[in-house]
Design goal:
Helix content of chain A: 10-25%
Radius of gyration of chain A: 23 Å
Strand content of chain B: 35-45%
Structural class of chain A: alpha+beta
CATH superfamily of the largest domain in chain B: PmbA/TldD superfamily
Strand content of chain A: 35-45%
Structural class of chain B: alpha+beta
Number of domains of chain A: 2
Radius of gyration of chain B: 24 Å
Number of helices of chain A: 10
Shape of chain B: globular
Low-confidence stretches of chain A: none
Oligomer: heterodimer
CATH architecture of the largest domain in chain B: 2-Layer Sandwich
Distance between the termini of chain A: 64 Å
CATH topology of the largest domain in chain B: PmbA/TldD fold
Helix content of chain B: 10-25%
Number of domains of chain B: 3
Largest interface: A-B, 76 and 77 residues
Shape of chain A: globular
CATH class of the largest domain in chain B: Alpha Beta
Mean pLDDT of chain A: 93
Largest sheet of chain A: 7 strands, mixed
Chain lengths: 462, 445
């Protein structure tokens, strides 16, 4: 493949980037005893991106034949030249040194060494075990999926990258019902790693117990009271806040379009305890699901410090925005599959941990909430967010009290970070399942320690 | 041009030879030209042809599925074999059955040569005009992203029980996402999207002005008031607050899994009598229109709710078999996945009140144009932050709102409708009126 790509580049007149990507996907899902998904999917091809006269053109082909690749390059080049007349600002690249980067180490006990029978068996058993735990459970779902990726990336500057990547995921979901009331609970765990890594982190038996218990317990739980409260957020909600409400506002393309973080480098944007980063490596703890060795422009996916002790330090870049801002590229250019062009995306976004115990954080709250697990959410260009917590407990007089129905939290993320007054030492990667969407999906992760701060909790309609 | 039907026949035949009791092959090909906008500038143009083949088989009524994006003969054979291999490790399930072939309705206007022939230069021109119109509207408008895309899509589905269907359609879609910024005052971002099957109807400048008007109008937003009372939902908000939970609840799979609050509610009132909801896969010009669904079952109009009474769930072949019903033609999805259930063109019927009249009749309330955060479809509990909302005072739009949240229960709100507008707007494949609801908790602070 290397020869095919470098030979194709040799004939290209403009700066050209070729990316061959083969993705093998497997998914098995069982709902209430029925096999709803049992699929294998192969998706492969070459994406060609050309920079000509300061403009980009992109084309792709599902074939890896030299003639098909040459056609894709010619088409991308024609589009780029054609766009040059329309574009106001010229795109440029930083100086790139030729390099060969190889990241082929497969994880220990790779998922590819396990049969689909074994995966289906796991999912069937987990779903049945979950549902058997209470007669109040009307339905349960268990699902396993995996992405196995191989990529060759080569460009006209002489950068060549060859990488392999395994990202499996497992989760359980349960729905309980009584007297027309319904509630649900569940958790999905996604990692970058192998089969035993996933089983070690997801612990299917405990997930079944967790999902069943909380779905049933929430049936009789009271709604939380509304208002602004001191809260302790667990690593999963902290990760979601870092990713969704802060992370997107510091993506350089979004900054150039006028996000709330524009022009704020060097300014204090969060409490002094807050240091936030985004990295292609699994910092602090292993297995983070957004891990990549190099991004889809071939840049090593290094750690980018976004906020240091409360001060905004920088943004997330691809080659083009790095050149425009005059900084080093951070390795945040990512493409979902071969037929999508690389755009600025996060990888593993996190808050650095502190040294306190979670119990101490809770002990400092007279009346508030302990919020665990993220049940979805949204954030806006101005960092206003709305998240749902998967487990909500009242804190009374420094102690965790009753379970409540899921709380909805809202606020402005930078204001919430200003209010952070304690960080625990329980760092975890916690949002490795599912995908981030920005025109195209991406596997990302987020995490941090438990954090004490203030946030608005929506109450029950009166 | 690849003969998709022939590829499907080859795949279904290969699967049968490998031991499938029943086999279905779905193939699609999309030829697209797209110009993308980013950061107030033309960003990138892309032309692509993507194809896919999905083979679904039942071996002793156990499910297996395999898909690929490469349609050459060897890969087609390999995928058929892979689907059978997956099924051999599966579990039998009586509901696993493919539909039989049926006559397909004619759907005029799915494909227009003039639209399909739009060149890259013309696509670029649309993009340029759209961007210029947004920026010319007001210098404070900033465009984060946008796109103009012309797609011609061909699809075919063949199964071993007599289904044999193929179709070509073309579509232009364009959108802008942006905000307004006046020094430190950043508006919430807004999104405008349009899609057409006729080239003549393309109006990129109109869309740009609509977006620009919306973001500028939400500058200078202030805190509103806290009260419990009247909320007018814009068509966008109707989708999120009322249509989305309803779609969840009429999905036959959700009904059969015990997750739908509409289980056992057929023939009973689930909404105010002003509410009538129809899903019509044959709608002229509809974004989701086509003759057949993902399994090759013919589309037909389905009345889901008539005058507040639940009339039908949405079924695919599998759930229909399990529920003792007939498929309503709502198998959804593409080549890369096992079919699931989804709507086509969904509309809430218009009412008899003008939008202006509706606002004029409100002493104190809010108009929600966009909401961040939707309802939990299982319980219906809704808690959302208003984006692009306005306070209504004495029958007039008083002021744009920030920091305002609403709380209610979506299923309760369906029964608390007090007015439905004559005007409707198309958003994606939805067509929705403005709807006034009562007893919503509005919190500002």
């Amino acid at each position: 493949m290397r020869d095919i790509l470098t030979n194709a580049l040799a004939g290209a007149p403009d700066w050209t980037e070729l990316r061959w990507h083969r993705r093998s996907q497997l998914r098995v899902t069982v709902e209430k005893g029925e096999v709803r998904q049992a699929k294998v999917d192969t998706y492969q091809g070459v994406g060609a991106r050309v920079l000509s006269d300061g403009s980009w053109g992109f084309s792709s082909t599902s074939s890896a034949e030299p003639e098909a690749i040459a056609r894709a390059i010619a088409e991308a080049a024609a589009i780029a030249r054609f766009l040059a007349s329309a574009r106001k600002e010229e795109a440029a690249l930083p100086k790139l040194a030729a390099a060969f980067r190889e990241h082929l180490a497969a994880p220990r006990d790779p998922v590819t060494a396990h049969s689909i029978e074994e995966k289906l068996e796991l999912v069937l058993r987990s779903e049945a075990e979950t549902r058997a735990r209470s007669p109040l459970l009307v339905s349960a779902t268990a699902s396993y999926s995996e992405y196995v990726d191989e990529k060759w990336i080569a460009n006209s500057s002489g950068v060549v990258v060859h990488e392999l990547d395994h990202k499996p995921e497992f989760g359980i979901w349960a729905v309980a019902s009584r007297d027309g009331q319904r509630s649900y609970a569940g958790r999905f765990v996604g990692i970058d790693g192998g089969w035993s890594d996933l089983m070690g982190k997801a612990r299917p038996g405990e997930l079944a117990e967790y999902s069943a218990r909380f779905a049933v317990d929430k049936l009789s739980a009271p709604y939380p009271d509304g208002g602004v409260f001191p809260v302790v957020m667990d690593p999963e909600i902290v990760g979601l806040l870092c990713h969704e409400a802060i992370g997107h506002t510091v993506e350089a393309d979004f900054v150039l379009a006028g996000s709330v973080a524009a022009g704020k480098v060097g300014q204090k944007v969060a409490g002094e305890l807050v240091t936030m980063c985004d990295s292609g490596a699994s910092e602090i703890e292993p297995l983070a699901a957004g891990s990549i060795a190099c991004d889809d422009e071939g840049t090593p996916a290094r750690r980018a410090v976004l906020i240091e002790n409360g001060v905004l330090r920088g943004y997330l870049h691809n080659l083009e925005t790095a050149a425009r801002f005059g900084v080093e590229p951070t390795g945040n250019a990512r493409a979902w599959e071969y037929d999508a062009e690389p755009i600025i995306r996060m990888r593993n976004t996190y808050l650095e941990p502190g040294d306190r115990k979670v119990g101490e954080l809770v002990a400092g709250i007279k009346d508030g909430y302990y919020l665990k697990g993220a049940g979805g959410g949204q954030a806006d260009a101005n960092a206003e967010f709305m998240f749902v917590a998967g487990e909500t407990y009242r804190i009374r007089d420094g102690k965790v009290a009753e379970l409540c129905r899921d709380a909805t939290l809202s606020g402005q993320a930078f204001e919430v970070l200003q209010s952070v007054d304690a960080l625990a030492d329980d760092f975890a990667w916690a949002m490795g399942s599912g995908h981030c969407g920005k025109g195209q999906p991406a596997k990302v992760d987020g995490g941090g320690p438990s954090v004490r701060c203030r946030v608005t909790v929506a109450g029950k309609q009166e | 041009m690849t003969d998709l039907k022939a590829i499907c026949q080859q795949a279904a035949e290969a699967a049968r030879r490998s031991g499938a009791g029943q086999a279905e092959a779905y193939a699609s090909e999309a030829v697209s030209r797209e110009v993308k906008l980013e950061k107030n500038d033309i960003h990138l143009a892309a032309s692509s042809t993507t194809s896919g083949l999905g083979v679904r088989v039942f071996v002793d009524r156990a499910l297996g599925f395999a898909s690929t994006n490469c349609l050459d003969a060897a890969e087609v054979e390999r995928s058929a074999g892979a689907a059978v291999a997956v099924a051999r490790s599966g579990r039998p399930d009586d509901a696993n059955e493919l539909p039989e072939g049926a006559a397909l309705p004619a759907v005029p206007g799915l494909h227009e040569e003039a639209l399909a022939a739009t060149t890259m230069a013309e696509t670029l021109d649309y993009a340029r005009r759209m961007l210029a119109a947004a920026r010319d509207f007001d210098p404070r408008v900033t465009i984060d992203s946008g796109s103009v895309e012309v797609v011609t899509r061909r699809r075919a589905v063949v199964n071993t029980r007599g289904v044999e269907a193929a179709e070509t359609s073309s579509l232009i879609t364009y959108f802008l996402m942006g905000m307004a910024r006046d020094s430190e005052d950043v508006s919430s971002f807004q999104f405008e999207f349009e899609a057409h099957r006729e080239r003549e109807r393309v109006d990129v400048e109109g869309l740009a002005r609509k977006l620009a008007g919306k973001v500028v109008a939400t500058l200078g937003a202030g805190k509103g008031e806290s009260f419990k009372g009247t909320v007018i939902l814009s068509p966008d908000a109707v989708i999120e607050v009322l249509a989305a939970p309803m779609l969840f609840s009429v999905d036959a799979n959700m009904v059969q899994k015990g997750m739908s609050p509409f289980a056992d509610k057929l023939g009973r009132a689930v909404a105010d009598s002003r509410i009538t909801v129809v899903d019509d896969g044959l709608l002229a010009g509809g974004l989701a229109s086509s003759a057949f669904d993902r399994e090759g079952v013919p589309h037909r109009p389905v009345t889901i709710v008539r005058n507040g009474v639940l009339e039908s769930y949405l079924y695919d072949t599998r759930t229909a078999r399990r529920g003792g019903a007939r498929s309503t033609g709502h198998a959804a999805g593409g080549a890369r996945s096992v079919p699931s259930i989804g709507p086509t063109n969904l509309s809430f019927a218009p009412g008899d009140v003008g939008k202006g009249e509706m606002i004029a009749g409100v002493d104190r309330g809010i108009l929600v144009t966009r909401l961040s955060g939707g309802p939990d479809p299982v319980s219906g509990d809704l808690s959302g932050v208003v984006k692009g909302g306005f306070l209504i005072r004495n029958g007039k739009l008083a002021q744009p709102l920030t920091g305002t949240a609403i709380q209610a229960n979506s299923y309760d709100l369906l029964r608390k409708v007090t007015a439905v507008s004559r005007e409707t707007e198309s958003i994606y494949s939805f067509r929705m009126p403005y709807i006034r609801v009562e007893d919503v908790s509005v919190t500002s602070g």
